[in-house]
Amino acid sequence: MKKVWALIGLMLLLSSCRSVPSTPVSPPVAGKLVFAGSTTMQPLVGALGEAFQKRYPGVQLEIAAGGSKVGIQAVHEGTVDIGMASRNLTPQEAEGISVHTIALDVIAVVVHPSNPVENLSLNDLAAIYWGEIVNWRQVGGPDLAVVPVVREISSGTRGAFDELVLGGREPTAPNLQTGVTAGDVAAMVAERPGAIGYVGFGNLTDQLRVVKINGVAPTPATARSGEYPLVRPLNLLTGPLSQPLAEEFIRFALSPDGQRIVEQAGWVPVR
């Protein structure tokens, strides 16, 4: 009888083992992601990437710049997994691309710290870059020639400024100066008493003075509310040829940890 009960017990044990479903094992997060695009976004994506790699040591990242246009084109061509664009895409550019806004960039208009002009209207700003306002006394400032500084043509900041301020037209001021990077623009304005330029919110320094636009100062609050007019999105772009790993990176960028990195880097979080 003992043998019978032992056999029954063994059969019940085997049956219960078969009825327990196995827990699927998730594949490790690993692989290589290639980025290209906005020079403005490159340091931010680098900081996010460093934290992402600490979480997933099996991931390799290659983060190139080249400008927003380069990033958009690279996603279309499938030569990168994630593009970076520091502006809105045109309908033609956006076709077949998924746009993921991870931060807001406030474009700050800056002048030399000795310049007493505190506020400009959007019309004043456009007139400066079209060469219609050539002396600061025309907008209540000193008798000093205006030296407008722009970013180079492939810059996402330049594209956003031209769209938001100039209605898509080219700046035509005769004494226009060009800085390749945001740091170049900041340095040129800091060195010239009559200069005016624009930089991303994350590129402000103590050597610059920020000018209000339409009476509104650039702050995270006025950017989110829409009161401040010079705001652009910082976008990560994916396409049909992007690896699934790209979606994992974007989820991290939009997570609480990722958004803290966004804020620490000087941009405005979207979440």
Distance between the termini: 69 Å
What order do the SSEs take from the amino end to the carboxyl end, as H and E?
HEHEHEHEEHEHEHEEHEHHE
CATH superfamily of the largest domain: Periplasmic binding protein-like II
As a percent range, the share of strand residues is 15-25%
Radius of gyration over alpha carbons? 26 Å
What is the CATH architecture term of the largest domain? 3-Layer(aba) Sandwich
Fold-level CATH name of the largest domain: D-Maltodextrin-Binding Protein, domain 2
CATH class label of the largest domain: Alpha Beta
Q: Which regions have little confidence, pLDDT < 50, spanning 5+ residues? A: 1-22
- Helix amount: 25-40%
Please, how many helices?
10
Integer average pLDDT? 90
Q: What is the domain total for the residues?
A: 2
Instruction: Kindly state the number of beta strands.
Output: 11
